[in-house]
Amino acid sequence: MNKIVGKIKNFLLELFFPIFCLGCRREGVYLCQDCKAILEISEFQYCLCGKNPLKINLELNKYGKCNKCSDKKLSGLYFALPYKESALTRKLIHQFKYQPYIKDLAKTLALLLAEHFLISGSNKEDVWRDSILIPIPLDKKKLKNRGYNQAEELAKELFKILKVPVFSDILIKIKTTLSQVELSGKEREQNLKNAFAINPVRNQISNGVKKSFDFFRGKKIFLVDDVYTTGSTMEECANILKKAGAKQVWGIVIAREG
Ligand SMILES: [Zn+2]
Ligand SMILES: [Zn+2]
Questions:
Q1: What pLDDT score does 182 carry?
Q2: Which residues pair with 20 in a beta bridge?
Q3: How confident is the prediction for the chain on average, in pLDDT?
Q4: For the chain, which ranges sit under pLDDT 70?
Q5: Which residues contact 173 (CB under 8 A, 6 or more apart)?
Q6: Domain shared by 57 and 131, yes or no
Q7: Ligand 2 centroid to 85 CA: how many Å?
Q8: Are residues 251 and 190 in the same domain?
Q9: Which of 23, 72, 251, 255 falls between 20 and 30 A from 41, CA-CA?
């Protein structure tokens, strides 16, 4: 019965809101093959330096960092696309997060990441072993406005590709933050201070002693978000997760700025 309702719903949605390619308005898909071919999906991994990041060979390096950014808490970053250069990339991400709120774009965007994993040689079993995916949480107000957390939607689609489990209730946002866009590096850090925490429900209590975070021990965590700009959000979350016992914390985003 639910299947029929779902089919009718999809039929009506497509009737009133037909799917168009965001690049060329061709009907049927959000990103047609021709427009996808224009996007330059990254074949490499780059370090976390804000300026002139270095290409990293993960066959030779354990982490996705160079000497200059080695003190970062994040172990490295996977991203499919450079953010600034392509109007289409910006459009894909914008419509995923803002009106008309195309939640379904998560599928299209996750496939771009899948292609990045494939062509950058990251589709190896040992990259994803003992790993979990954690979407960067949204604060309640934003979640209410948007109706979904775009990072969580993306993580759910990545689960289907990577078979790495998603845990959306571990990291929580406990403070409403200002939009990072207008802020300087220092202000961003201040803005994010104490903004995230480990969900207290995830702390285990045994014999009256709080044995927090055993869950993370030995695990490799992949934080999932839509865009990486200065990296301060990921850095803050990686710090919390590492203090909680996570072995490594990596980032996965659709696009990287800079
Ligand atoms: Zn197109
Ligand atoms: Zn670097």
A1: 79
A2: 27
A3: 89
A4: 1, 13-15, 202-213, 258
A5: 137, 138, 139, 140, 195, 196
A6: yes
A7: 21
A8: yes
A9: 72
Give residue 224's domain range. Answer: 42-256
Sign of CA dihedral 160, 165, 170, 171: negative
Q: How far is the CA of 26 from the centre of ligand 2 (A)?
A: 40
User: Cα 125–40–55 angle (5° rounding)?
Assistant: 60
Ligand 2 centroid from CA 220, angstroms: 21
User: Which ligand minimizes its atom distance to the CA of 77?
Assistant: 2
How far apart are the CA of 66 and the centre of ligand 2, in A? 4
CATH number, domain at 158?
Answer: 3.40.50
Q: Report CA(50)–ligand 2 centroid distance (Å).
A: 8
Q: Which ligand is nearest to the CA of 21?
A: 1
- Whole-number pLDDT of residue 20: 94
Enter the pTM of the model.
0.89
What's the CA gap between 106 and 101, in Å, rounded?
Answer: 11
